[in-house]
Amino acid sequence: EAGVTQFPSHSVIEKGQTVTLRCDPISGHDNLYWYRRVMGKEIKFLLHFVKESKQDESGMPNNRFLAERTGGTYSTLKVQPAELEDSGVYFCASSRERTLQFFGPGTRLTVL
Amino acid sequence: LAKTTQPISMDSYEGQEVNITCSHNNIATNDYITWYQQFPSQGPRFIIQGYKTKVTNEVASLFIPADRKSSTLSLPRVSLSDTAVYYCLVGDVNDYKLSFGAGTTVTVRA
Question: Is the confidence at residue A98, as pLDDT, over 80?
Answer without folding.
Answer: no
